[in-house]
Give the backbone structure.
Amino acid sequence: MRRGMGCGLAVMVALVVGVCGAGCGSSSNSTSTETTATISKAEFVAKGNAVCVKGEKAQEAEINAYVKKHGLENKKPTTAQQAELVETVFAPNIQSQIDGVKALGAPSGEEQQVSSALELSQQTLEKIEANPELVFGNKDVFAAAGKQLHALGLTKCASNS
């Protein structure tokens, strides 16, 4: 990430990168976050964190490309650019991560906790899609979801939370 990037974009990038592990992909806006399969705890943590790391790297690359393409290295994006970043980069990436973690299933006995964390992540993403400037504020909008994800061992998901 470039040091001279505008404060608003830098905050957004930090939030985006930190939240990546919460889940992303298609922007289906599906609120169903029920998990089905059973997976060992160790496998869930390893695979879930891998989903988040992969999503974080992809999102960071997409944001960097957007910043370069639009000459935002030292500027804060306009309101329209913020909305475009959320719509074209942030939301699809986070949705892909949510979907990726959901597809893993849940460790036996932790089904409710996984479902709750993914549902909260999905609800937060939907709030951001409706109000993109939330990502550019000073508040970590994924803090509550991050806390739940971290409790499950998914520390690479919502890593700034």
In short: Residues 14-26+35-151 form one domain. The chain is about 60% helix and 0% strand. The first helix runs from residue 7 to 19. The chain has one domain: 14-26+35-151.
